[in-house]
Amino acid sequence: MSSTDHKKHPCPDCTFCQWCSDDRCALCLRKDCCKKKLSIAEQIALYDEINRDKTPAPGTDETVDNLSEYGLKIIQPLSGYRFSLDPLLLCDFAPTDRNSILDLGCGCGIISLVMAKKCPGAAITGVELQKEMAGIALRNSADNRLSSRVRIIESDILDLRRHLASEGFDLVMANPPYRRQGEGRISPKAGRDLARHESSATLHDFMTIAKRMTKPGASICFICHPERLTEMLYLATGLKLSPIRLQMVHGDCTLPARMFLIEFLKGKNGTLAVLPQISIKGSVYGERQQGGMKKAR
Q1: Is the per-residue pLDDT at 241 higher than 80?
Q2: Residue 176, CB half-sphere, CA atoms under 13 Å: how many?
Q3: Confidence at residue 287, expressed as pLDDT on a 0 to 100 scale
Q4: Biggest CA pair distance of the chain
Q5: Residue 153 and residue 125 in contact, taking contact as beta carbons nearer than 8 Å
Q6: CA nearest 288: which of 22, 12, 106, 73?
Q7: How many CB atoms lie within 10 A of CB 155?
Q8: Torsion angle, CA of 24/29/30/36, rounded to 10 degrees?
Q9: Quick one: 12 exposed, middle or buried, by C-beta within 10 A (0-12, 13-18, 19+)?
Q10: Distance (Å, whole) CA 54 – CA 198
Q11: For the packed helices 229-239 and 203-213, what is the interaxial angle rounded to 10 degrees?
Q12: For domain 62-295, which architecture applies?
């Protein structure tokens, strides 16, 4: 098997190689392991050991994690969807000279909160479909004393016209579900599948709504799985969105890309710049991954 072939991996949330450098993979985060080559059976046994379900005690179904780089404390559900490096990559990729930012599918509010720190003068609106996650995002905004600048709306993005005027934002950001309905593995953890598989809103919906909500000449920034890149560029042509920046993200530079970051302009022509690739392994992102999120309680 060549170094670029995908290898079997026991982690249900990743499809990458052994010691894949995926930030969601508990095998990669294990510090007391020599990371010797394991058989598939040994991988599965190790995965079961460190990833077996734990039933939370009453009142302990959440964690509070420190994102010290930005001085943030983030409440997240103990099980279900928990953010990974993807939103942080998107925040580092997005332009920061904007005054009004829309975060489509904001989850616990991580993109909204980080962008509030990176853009001190900006007003940010996060939109989240899941009631529980929208409530957590509201609490995160309040607990980090950002309620005056970070607004959270509980809504399907398809219903945004009821809440927000069109063409009101300098920047729209999204970490949309990567998989189409019926594709890929279904996560057994509640809430996680909604974040990773299209439900009511498709990629076309995310792009159409992003265009509707941005001002003329404003930016739209997405992070998505490489298998959706061709589709996204095709949709952008129909929507008259011009791609101006593209950056591939690799777990390791010897392996295929695992994500891509892209910026579009609305109603404005531009030349596409393909930026140097990001390799998580050996980068500041790898250090974030290996360090993990520090528990605040």
Answers
A1: yes
A2: 32
A3: 58
A4: 56
A5: yes
A6: 22
A7: 16
A8: 90
A9: middle
A10: 28
A11: 40
A12: 3-Layer(aba) Sandwich (3.40)
Neighbouring CB atoms inside 10 A of 29's CB total: 15
Q: What are phi and psi of 124, to 5 degrees?
A: -125, 135
Structure tokens given for 78 = 């103990």
Write out the DSSP string of the chain: --TTS----S-TT--S-TT---TT-HHHH-SS-------HHHHHHHHHHHH---PPPTT-SEEEEEEGGGTEEEEEESSS----HHHHHHHHHS-S--SEEEEES-TTTHHHHHHHHHSTT-EEEEEESSHHHHHHHHHHHHHTT-TTTEEEEES-GGGGGGTS-TT-EEEEEE----B-TT-SPPPSSTTHHHHHB-SSS-HHHHHHHHHHHEEEEEEEEEEE-GGGHHHHHHHHHHHTEEEEEEEEEESSTTS--SEEEEEEEES-----EEPPPEESTTSHHHHHHHH-PEE--
pLDDT in tens, 264-283: 999 888 899 999 999 887 66
Place of tokens 């001002």: 215
Please write the tens of the pLDDT for every residue from 140-162: 999 999 999 999 999 999 999 99
**Structural domain boundaries of the chain?**
1-52, 62-295
Measured between alpha carbons, how far is 6 from 179 in angstroms, rounded to an integer? 18
CA distances from 89 to 107, 202, 246, 292 (A): 16, 22, 13, 15
pTM above 0.85, yes or no: no
The residue type at 5: D
68's tokens: 């010290």
Amino acid at residue number 31: K
Neighbours of 212 (CB within 10 A): 17
